[in-house]
Amino acid sequence: MISTNEVTTILGIKTERLRQWVKFGYIKPTVKASGSGTNTYYSKYDLFRIGFFKKLIDVGFKRWVASKFANKFSNDDWDVVWNKYFIVSGTIDRSKNWSDTMKLSITTNPIVNCSDKEIVIVIDLWAIKKSVLDQIDKNLHLFIEKY
Q1: Distance between CA atoms of residues 99 and 104, nearest Å
Q2: Residue 147: its pLDDT value, please?
Q3: If 0-12 CB within 10 Å is exposed, 13-18 middle and 19+ buried, where does residue 82 land?
Q4: Angle, alpha carbons 126-82-7 (nearest 5°)
Q5: Fold for domain 2-146?
Q6: C-alpha torsion angle, residues 121, 124, 129, 130 (rounded to 10)
Q7: Domain boundaries, the chain
Q8: What is the pLDDT of residues 30-55, one digit of tens each?
Q9: What is the reported pTM?
């Protein structure tokens, strides 16, 4: 299990930001602190979800939407993420909220045909997973020193 401080070091995010995401329910750790003086712990799958959540925010999604997408992935989904892309598309219609027109798909083909009235965002899931795994390797000393 990975502590909050380790997660923030590995993913390069501020501790308070991660705690806020947990507090508001955007991120769900494997083991949530049960009270004062107790720790919150994350699995490697939680790190993949947090990395994906962060990427979605970085490209402009609102946190509640990013959370909805990130939490769709089970641990088994992350185990088979190899050469797969997360694609979000939606129509541009000023009378509707863009999030109401969104379609989601996971595919091995990042090429998407769309009209000029659509917005398409393609995110490489393997790149997110690999980035997290690389950061874990880079910060392996955290885990070795801990045990």
Answers
A1: 11
A2: 45
A3: exposed
A4: 40
A5: Multidrug-efflux Transporter Regulator; Chain: A; Domain 2 (1.10.1660)
A6: -140
A7: 2-146
A8: 888 777 767 889 988 888 889 889 98
A9: 0.72
